[in-house]
Amino acid sequence: MSEMIDVTRPMFLSIKEVVKVTGLSEYYLRQNIKAGKVPYIKSGNKILINMPRLSATLNDMTDKSLVQL
Asked: Residue 27: left (phi > 0), alpha (psi -120 to 50), or beta?
């Protein structure tokens, strides 16, 4: 069965929009983008973050940190 896409919610957000939606700090996002941990694309000079992939990445990071405890 194919997964439905919610067209009312944008898939790509700017860093400032992600900060507002998630509560993550801009510094944290930029550091993780630079480290290659957060998936993004560039449109001109603007960095756009794929929200479904960011959510999956953060969940994966959380799962790994729980295993290390």
From this structure: alpha
Alpha-carbon distance 4 to 35, whole Å?
A: 31
**Predicted structure pTM score:** 0.72
Q: How confident is the model over 18-32, as pLDDT tens digits?
A: 999 999 999 999 999
Domain count, the chain: 1
Structural domain including 44 reads 12-68
CA distances from 13 to 8, 18, 58, 64 (A): 13, 6, 16, 25
* Residues 6 or more apart in contact with residue 61 via CB below 8 angstroms: 37
- Tell whether 41 is covered by a domain: yes
